[in-house]
Design goal:
The protein is α/β, with parallel strands linked by helices and 464 residues long. It is built from 15 helices and 22 strands. 41% of the residues lie in helices and 20% in strands. Strand 8, helix 6 and strand 9 form a beta-alpha-beta unit. The longest helix is centred in the N-terminal third of the chain and has 24 residues. Bound molecules: NADPH dihydro-nicotinamide-adenine-dinucleotide phosphate. The site of NADPH dihydro-nicotinamide-adenine-dinucleotide phosphate has 28 residues, from helix 7, helix 8 and helix 11. It is an enzyme of class 1 (oxidoreductase).
C-alpha cells in the first residue's frame, strides 16, 4: 500500500527529499506503508499552487463549487469500504465503528457542504449596505490521527465550499486515508491547486504551514499544546486561526435520570475509538443517591468490552494509535490514586492495547479528572445536587462537550449552565450540521454546518 507522492497543483509529484515515514498498524505493530516525509520546500510548492488556484476558485459561483463538491462526494462514497478498512489498519478502529463513524461521518459532512454550497443563502443587507461573504484565502489544514478523515473533511469541505484553497497536512500516524480523499479529488476533477497534500511531521511540515506568510488561515485540530504553538506562529502575521483542541467532558447523571441508560451510553461514549475522542465523556458525575449503582453498572459495562483485532466481528475495542500513546495512557493509570473498579485485565500481548478502565471516587481536582488522557479511562465522581454537579463539571480548563441525564426541563437547565461548546441531553445523537467547537482551552471557532462555513469567510460591507 505504498503511497510515494505528494499531491500538488493537481498532480502526484515526488517530495523534495527522498525521506519517508513508516506507517504502523497499531494492532499488529507491523509497518504497513511508507509515505513521503515532506519538508518546508514542499510546503512552499503547495502554497504556491494553492495561491495560483485561489483567484479562479474563489470567483467560481458557490453553486458551481457545490456541484464539484457533489462529484467529490460521489467519488469518495465509492471508496467507503476502503476508507473503513484503511482506518482500521492505520488507527485500529474496529471495522463496524470504522464503517459507521470513520467513513460514514465524513461522507455525511461532505454531502452536507455540497448541498449547502449548491443552494447558497441570499446575501444579507443592512440598511444601504450589502454584506458580502468572501473566502479567507489559502487555508493550511493540520489534522490529527483520531478521526483522520472526518477531521480532514470538516475543514476541507467547508473551506472549498467557501471558495478557499487548501494545503493539507494529515497526521504522520494516519496519513493513508487522506490519500483516498486526494484520489477522489483527482477523479472528481477538482481544479488544479485547489486541494494540495503534503505528508510529513508536525515539527517540519506543520510548523512550515503555520508560519508561512502565504497561508491566510490555519485550521488546526489536535492537542492544546500544539494548538498553542500553531497560534503563536500565526500571530506574527495576524493570520486567522481556528483551533479544535482537547476536552475533559462531563456526563452528568442527575437524581431523576434513567440510570441504566445513562451509564450504558456514557461508558460507550467514553470508550468510543478506544477513548481517543476529543469530545469523550471521560468524567461521569453521578448524584450520590445513584452513585453505588452507577459504579457497579459502569464496571460491568467495561468488562463487556472485548478488546482485540479490529477486523474481528466480536471486537468492541481496538488498540491505541501508537506505543507512545499507550505509554502515556498507562502513565495516567499507574499514577492514579482513585479506586479502580475495572481494568488491568488481559489484553492482546502484541499491539498497543489498554484494558477498558474505570476509576471510582475520583478527586475532581486530581490529574485523572483534569488531564485529557485520550485512552479508555473513565473517572466516576459523586455530587450532592445540581449546583454541585455544575460546579464540578465546569472545574476544567477545557470546555468542549458534555452530557446531562434527567427529566428534560431540569437536564436542559443544567445543560445551559455548562461552559462547553456542546451538550447532549438524555443521549441525543451527534448532529453533523450543528456547530462543533470549544470554550476555554478546547479551542477557538466552530466547525460543521453553516457555522463551519463562516469560519472560512471574510465579511465585507459594500455601501450603495
Ligand atoms: P498533536 O496535537 O501534536 O498533533 C496534531 C497535528 O499537529 C498532527 O498533524 C501533528 O503532526 C501536528 N503537529 C505537531 N507538532 C506541530 C507543530 N509544531 N506545528 C504544527 N503542527 C504540528 O497531537 P499528538 O499526536 O502529539 O497527540 C498527543 C495528545 O494530544 C494526545 O494524547 C491527546 O491527548 C491530544 N490529542 C487531542 C486531539 C483532539 O482531537 N482533541 C487529537 C489528537 C491528539 P504529526 O502527528 O504528523 O507529527
Amino acid at each position: 500500500m505504498n503511497r510515494d507522492s505528494l499531491y500538488l497543483g493537481g498532480r502526484w509529484v515526488s517530495a523534495n527529499s527522498g525521506a519517508t515515514i513508516a506507517v504502523e498498524n497499531p494492532a499488529t505493530e507491523e509497518i504497513i506503508a511508507h509515505v513521503p516525509a515532506g519538508n518546508a520546500e514542499d510546503v512552499e510548492r503547495a502554497v504556491t499552487a494553492a495561491t495560483a488556484a485561489f483567484d479562479d476558485w474563489s470567483r467560481t459561483p458557490m453553486a458551481e463549487r457545490g456541484a464539484i463538491l457533489g462529484k467529490l462526494h460521489e467519488a469518495l462514497a465509492s471508496r467507503a469500504d476502503e476508507i473503513a478498512r484503511t482506518v482500521g489498519l492505520e488507527l485500529g478502529t474496529p471495522l463496524k465503528v470504522a464503517k459507521a463513524v470513520q467513513a460514514g461521518l465524513p461522507l455525511a459532512v461532505l454531502r452536507g457542504y455540497a448541498d449547502l454550497a449548491a443552494n447558497p443563502a441570499a446575501e444579507e443587507t443592512i440598511g444601504h449596505s450589502l454584506i458580502a461573504r468572501e473566502p479567507v484565502g489559502v487555508v493550511g489544514a493540520i489534522t490529527p490521527w483520531n478521526y483522520p478523515l472526518h477531521q480532514v473533511v470538516a475543514k476541507v469541505a467547508a473551506a472549498l465550499a467557501a471558495g478557499c484553497t487548501v494545503v493539507l497536512k494529515p497526521s504522520e500516524l494516519t496519513p493513508l486515508v487522506a490519500y483516498l480523499l486526494l484520489d477522489a479529488a483527482d477523479e472528481a476533477g477538482l481544479p488544479d491547486g485547489v486541494l494540495n497534500l503534503v505528508t510529513g511531521t508536525g515539527a517540519e511540515v506543520g510548523a512550515a504551514i503555520a508560519g508561512h506568510p502565504g497561508v491566510d488561515m490555519v485550521s488546526f485540530t489536535g492537542s492544546t499544546a500544539t494548538g498553542r504553538a500553531v497560534s503563536h506562529a500565526a500571530a506574527d502575521r495576524i493570520a486567522r486561526v481556528s483551533l479544535e483542541l482537547g476536552g475533559k467532558s462531563a456526563n452528568i447523571i442527575l437524581a431523576d435520570a434513567d440510570l441504566t441508560k445513562a451509564v450504558k451510553v456514557g461508558v460507550g461514549n467514553a470508550f468510543l475509538n478506544s477513548g481517543q475522542t476529543c469530545t469523550a465523556w471521560t468524567r461521569m458525575l453521578v448524584h450520590r443517591d445513584l452513585y453505588d449503582s452507577a459504579v457497579s453498572l459502569a464496571a460491568d459495562a467495561a468488562a463487556g468490552y472485548t478488546t482485540g483485532d479490529p477486523f474481528d466481528a466480536g471486537t468492541r475495542m481496538g488498540p491505541l494509535v501508537s506505543a507512545a500513546q499507550r505509554e502515556r495512557v498507562q502513565g495516567f493509570i499507574s499514577r492514579a490514586s482513585a479506586r479502580m473498579v475495572a481494568g488491568d485485565s488481559g489484553v492482546p500481548r502484541k499491539g498497543y492495547f489498554v484494558a477498558p478502565t474505570v476509576f471510582a471516587d475520583v478527586d475532581p481536582g486530581s490529574e485523572l479528572a483534569q488531564e485529557e488522557i485520550f485512552g479508555p479511562v473513565l473517572s466516576i465522581i459523586p455530587f450532592d445536587d445540581d449546583e454541585d454537579a455544575v460546579r464540578i463539571a465546569n472545574n476544567s480548563r477545557y470546555g468542549l462537550a458534555g452530557g446531562v441525564w434527567g427529566t428534560p426541563d431540569r437536564a436542559l437547565a443544567v445543560a445551559r449552565r455548562l461552559r462547553t461548546g456542546a451538550v447532549d441531553v438524555n443521549g441525543a445523537s451527534f448532529n453533523p450540521v450543528a456547530p462543533f467547537g470549544g470554550y476555554k482551552q478546547s479551542g477557538i471557532g466552530r466547525e460543521l454546518g453553516v457555522h463551519g462555513l463562516a469560519e472560512f469567510q471574510q465579511t465585507k460591507a459594500i455601501q450603495r
